[in-house]
Amino acid sequence: MTALTDVSVHDLMADIGRRARAAARRLARASTEQKAAALVAMAAEVRAREADILKANAADVAAMKKNGVAASFLDRGTLDTARVEAIAKALEEIAALPDPVGRVLASWTRPNGLAIERMATPLGVIGIIFESRPNVTADAGALCLMAGNAAILRCGSDSLGSSQAILVALTAGLRAAGLPEDAIQLVPVKDRAAVGEMLTGLEGSIDVIVPRGGKSLVARVQTEARVPVFAHLEGICHIYVDKAADLDMAVTVTVNAKLRRVGVCGSAETLLVDRAVADSHLLPILKALAERGCEIRATEEVRSRFPSAVPATEADWSTEYLAPIISVALVDGVDAAIEHIETYGSHHTDSIITADEATAAHFLASVDSAIVLHNASTQFADGGEFGMGAEIGIATGKMHARGPVGVEQLTSFKYRVRGSGQTRP
After folding, report:
1. Is residue 61 a contact partner of residue 91, using CB atoms and an 8 Å limit?
2. Shared domain check, 242 and 369
3. Residue 264 domain boundaries
4. In a domain, 267, yes or no
5. In the beta sheet, which residues pair with residue 208?
6. What single string gives the DSSP state of each residue in 109-161?
């Protein structure tokens, strides 16, 4: 696609922002039934347009292969019949969620008779910048809609065709429900200047930016954004196998956490094993991983027990592989595991495998990550698995939204105060 000039990109994005702001004002007043009807209609349109979506995706994937895109990005960017159906089901699941807008979060009455309510309200216009995964077009657009927000989506250039095909279905659903088609807009150009325009806030039109992608994208957004950001950092996720871990569980959970899908942010990148069970637990876990094609990068201590492992470097402990590779180390108990996670982790998702409830409680309380698990795979780091229907991303910051960002996290609040003529003395 031919790049536009900076001036024309500015004009294009400013117009998108103005139309999104106008749509957001209408969405803030939309009923639950109207939003749900739009989402159900979108799901039907996705299914009806499956052939068009897969055709567009095939062209995107062919171009990615030609350009030598990494296998993890190919996996994220590829659609098939099952994944298209998953997009449709997610839309229906979001439609069935309770409407987050209008919830009374708290209420009280002052001694002077003023009745005060804190009520959930839409954020307004949300800009989502994402890479590779075309399903985010539907997930993000639908979550924003259910929370009464307009969405401006900027997908990765590799998946623009796929995202445009999905947007056709979303727009048809909005139209069928009588909602503004500008409620979900996709930036139609690959020019990177469009990202810069979004980070300025589009002349006050964008209220929040959500980046979903690699370290360089998130770093740019956090550095340049002039509007609030829900940061979605890389997933340097850990599995810690405690001395009280059941061996079969440790093997099963670790293999799933690493290899179910290696290209997702919840894939485990580091395995830590309590040195107290190195003789009994380490080799069965590593053999299970290696037999399934996983490369082991390990400390010399681990390699002395598993010689086929590749020597780990300092960089391995802070690398998000998004590939069938895992770094492995032995540690002296849960506190050493926690120290390693806090030193090298990204505060995304970390799990402990143990039958000791006190140790598990200590781990869950001490690891400062958005998601911490006990006896479960890190691959559960997903809004759908949390019952949110879908997610825009996993926020790793500490302000407002943290963990899976679903419909509730896409709201703000305001205070409604009812009086009977009170004046302040």
Report:
1. no
2. yes
3. 237-380
4. yes
5. 126
6. E-TTS-EEEEEEEE--EEEEEE-S-THHHHHHHHHHHHTT-EEEEE--GGGHH
Residue 145 in contact with residue 39, Cβ under 8 Å?
Answer: yes
Residues 163 and 245 grouped into a single domain: no
As a whole number of angstroms, the distance between CA 74 and CA 296 comes to 23
Q: Does a structural domain hold residue 393?
A: no
Q: Are strands 125-130 and 150-154 parallel, antiparallel or unpaired?
A: parallel
**Other C-beta atoms lying within 10 Å of the C-beta of residue 147:** 27
Predicted pLDDT of residue 2: 44
User: Given the DSSP bridges, would you call strands 208-212 and 295-298 parallel, antiparallel or unpaired?
Assistant: unpaired
Which pTM does this prediction carry? 0.82
Domain count of the fold of the chain: 2
pLDDT in tens, 90-118: 999 999 999 999 999 999 999 999 999 99
Residues 221 and 305 in one domain: no
Report DSSP state, residue 282: I
Quick: pLDDT tens for 114-144: 999 999 999 999 999 988 789 999 999 999 9
CB 145 within 8 A of CB 183: yes
Task: Tell me if 399 is assigned to some domain.
Answer: no
Which residues are within 8 A (CB) of 18 and not within 5 positions of it... i.e. 6 or more apart?
202, 203, 205
The whole-angstrom separation of Cα 34 and Cα 328 is: 51
Tokens describing residue 147:
């929370």
pLDDT digit string (tens) for 232-291?
Answer: 778 999 999 999 999 999 999 999 999 999 988 899 999 999 999 999 999 999 999 999
Q: Which two tokens stand for residue 412?
A: 């703000």
Query: 18-54 pLDDT, tens per residue?
Result: 999 999 999 999 999 999 999 999 999 999 999 999 9
Co-location of 271 and 226 in the same domain: no
If you ran DSSP here, which 8-state letter would residue 275 be given?
A: G
Q: What would the mean pLDDT of 192-200 be, rounded to a whole number?
A: 93
CATH of the domain at 413: 3.40.605.10
Domain assignment present for residue 1? The answer is: no
* 122 in Cβ contact with 28 (< 8 Å): yes
